[in-house]
Amino acid sequence: MNAAKKFAKKVKKKKSTINMIKCNFCSKIFNDRAALTGHLKVHSTDLLYECNLCDYAGKTQKYLSRHIKVKHGGNKEFECDVCGKTFHFGCKLKVHMRVHTGEKPYKCGVCGKSFNASYSLNTHKLIHTGK
After folding, report:
1. Does the model's pTM come out above 0.85?
2. Are 27 and 43 in contact (CB under 8 A)?
3. pLDDT band for position 126 (50/70/90)?
4. Structural domain for 96, as ranges
5. Exposed e or buried b for every residue in 75-99, given b needs 16+ CB within 10 A?
6. For residue 124, what are the CA distances in angstroms to 3, 8, 113, 117?
7. Does residue 47 share a domain with residue 22?
8. How many domains are there within the chain?
9. 8 lies in a domain?
10. Which top-rank group of organisms is this from (predicted)?
């Protein structure tokens, strides 16, 4: 692939910031109104999606599906090739692999210390704020 085609492909992948819609509750930005409408359910207090296996109720179909997979689904489909640990979600395996690779993509802006997970960085930041 020549340089012009690579550049055109990169430009096409970037999201346009024109006509973006912002959530008034959390400032998350969406490409269209339908995506925002779906997102607004997470800010609702209504629990419209009930599990037929236990008393869980969630705000969205996605939350219910995730609950059923984790709590009632049994098999964990994603296995670490290094240590054999298993996960329900591929994204969790991807984060776990950083334990083995040593990758630490989250860096503290105050002291420069790096972490392999965003939650670890967020916890670390508390030492700088005194909270």
Report:
1. no
2. no
3. very high
4. 78-129
5. eeeeeeeeeeeebbeeeebebbeee
6. 42, 40, 9, 11
7. yes
8. 2
9. no
10. Eukaryota
